[in-house]
Specification:
single chain; mainly alpha; about 70% helix; globular
């Protein structure tokens, strides 16, 4: 018999095992890379973390109301620049820190959205998914550059979850938000 206490125990166990998986991945990463600069250099050129945020997103948010064209290399939508404008009111260091927190929250979101469904299939599929997220190169690359890939993935997952929950209009809004960041994501609307 599974009561509220049994369900809470399962959720706590799942959370602890998930933390263990992520903790193990972080230990491997820390053993492999001596510093953030070493991590950055080994993933791609340059030693600075969140370089896309610093080079493109922050300046776009900073200049959306004052410049007639976006910064060179900014290949995202004007709507996304508007969304970045409040963050650009902070110093670059503070905004970068906040962007890192946002990235971590998005990773947690992409873990939580499918968690209930995967756990209902089998615990092993849920833990495999957690391990894949923890060890996924696109996630690592996202942290390296501070890109929007996880944001777009989270909106697609969220839209699918909402659609499956029969909240079609909210699903459409979430999908539209994801598509409004980068134009190629418009394919998900189809």
């Amino acid at each position: 018999m599974t009561g509220a206490g049994g369900t809470e125990t399962k959720h706590l166990r799942d959370a602890l095992i998930s933390l263990g998986i992520f903790g193990s991945a972080l230990i491997v990463y820390f053993l492999h890379w001596d510093s953030a600069a070493d991590f950055s250099k080994s993933i791609d050129h340059g030693a600075s973390l969140f370089l896309d945020f610093k080079r493109y997103y922050y300046p776009a948010g900073e200049n959306i109301f004052t410049e007639p064209v976006p910064p060179r290399g900014y290949v995202y939508t004007p709507f996304f620049a508007l969304c970045l404008a409040p963050r650009a009111r902070f110093s670059l260091d503070t905004a970068t820190y906040l962007w890192g927190i946002c990235q971590a929250a998005l990773v947690l979101g992409t873990l939580n959205i499918p968690a209930k469904h995967l756990a209902s299939l089998s615990r092993s599929s849920f833990y495999l998914y957690v391990a894949l997220v923890a060890l996924s190169f696109p996630y690592i690359h996202n942290f390296r550059w501070g890109q929007v890939s996880v944001l777009i993935f989270a909106t697609v997952l969220g839209a699918l979850y909402l659609y499956r929950s029969r909240r079609k209009y909210l699903s459409a809004v979430v999908l539209a938000l994801g598509a409004s960041v980068k134009l190629y994501t418009i394919v998900f609307i189809v």
